[in-house]
Amino acid sequence: MATEAAEDLITQAEAARLRGVTRAAIAYLVAQGRLRTYERFGVTFVSRSEVEGFEPQKPGPRPSSAPRKGSKKGRKR
């Protein structure tokens, strides 16, 4: 776990207000590993600077390096 300055840590609810999104949206980013969390005194925090500098990914399908289900590539005969 990396350490952050205590002044830089905010709750997920504060992060949601800062970004103008729901707390669930912040929780989703945490679950996806897009925002790191820090636990202090039994409370989960995120880094204010990380939240402020967060850049959303472009919408649309993501390219996949794994072969698709039903693909003939790698199929033994």
Task: Record the SSE blueprint.
Layout: E1 9-11, H1 12-19, H2 23-31, E2 37-40, E3 43-47, H3 48-52
Antiparallel strand pairs: 1-3, 2-3
Helix pairs in contact: 1-2
Helix content: 25-40%
Q: How are the strands ordered across the major sheet? A: 1-3-2
Low-confidence parts: none
Using DSSP, what is the number of strands? 3
Mean pLDDT: 84
Termini Cα gap: 48 Å
Helical/strand content category: alpha+beta
Radius of gyration: 18 Å
Helix count, DSSP H or I runs of 4 or more residues: 3
- Which overall shape is indicated by the principal axes computed on the Cα atoms? elongated
The topology string of helices and strands comes to: EHHEEH
Strand content: 15-25%
Q: How would you describe the oligomerization state of the chains in this entry?
A: single chain
**Biggest sheet features:** 3 strands, antiparallel
